[in-house]
Amino acid sequence: PINVEATWSRSTSADILGSARPDRYYAKFAGAPDSSLWYPSALANAIAGKDLDTLNPEIIIQINSEADWDLDGLGKPTRFEYDLKSVMIHELAHGLGFLSTSAYIFDRTKGQNVGVLDQPTPFDAYSQTEDGNRLADLPSRSIELAKALTSKLVWSGPEGIKANNGVKPLLFTPATYEAGSSVSHLDEETFANTGSNTALTPSMAAGEVFTELGPVLLGMMRDLRNKPAPG
């Protein structure tokens, strides 16, 4: 069982419909495919075959109570409403592990932006630069990592590639870093209007509905259960 703690409250920004994260991450647990990586709660439990923390939920979700919601669950919002069920599907995917733990910050010592990735996850190991470097292998608190977070990144997992017709899925990495959106979504322009694969793009329009996680995302989730190949 996957336990979710969901909060209904005002978000810090009216543009944010919701947010989600794993409650915690685990490394070097019994059965971990890669001992150097950190696995989100629900994924770690699934791989270990047991609940590694019986006292806390696996996923934390916060929904913006101030948004114009369609709450009936029938999937027929007006063009001015957001479908709550669709947003929950999107956020649950993040909670299950479709999420980078990287950050993009200004370093006063260096006088410029740096990338930080102290606890790389399987998601970070499958996310690669065009020349094959894994995010998980780039130095943390570095200019090199900052450049990677704002450059083209692709998914290197075989299941995700297979589901995307043999093409490495493109991640959302605009040149101007967007906290909460960059890296942890499929590319908006590439996957917009692609049916169910649209569920994990960073933007959702009023009136938009999706009822499932598309084949590309499901392929990527299968990859997360296996050991990533070296970069």
Overview of this protein structure:
The strands form 5 sheets. The chain has a 3-stranded mixed sheet with strand order 1-5-2, covered by helices on one side. It has helices spanning 41-48, 84-96, 122-126, 143-149, 158-163, 188-191, 215-223; strands at residues 4-9, 18-22, 25-26, 39-40, 59-64, 69-70, 82-83, 103-107, 112-116, 127-129, 153-155. It is α/β, with parallel strands linked by helices. The chain has 7 helices and 11 strands.
Key attributes of the depicted protein:
18% strand; 11 strands; alpha/beta; two-stranded antiparallel ribbon; 231 residues; three-stranded mixed β-sheet
Overall mean pLDDT score? 94
Instruction: Count up the helices.
Output: 7
Q: Strands of the biggest beta sheet: in what spatial order?
A: 1-5-2
Low-confidence stretches: none
Rg is 17 Å
Largest sheet: 3 strands, mixed
Shape: globular
Class from helix and strand fractions: alpha/beta
Give the topology string: H per helix, E per strand: EEEEHEEEHEEHEHEHHH
Question: How many individual β-strands?
Answer: 11
The CA-CA distance between the termini, in Å, is 34 Å
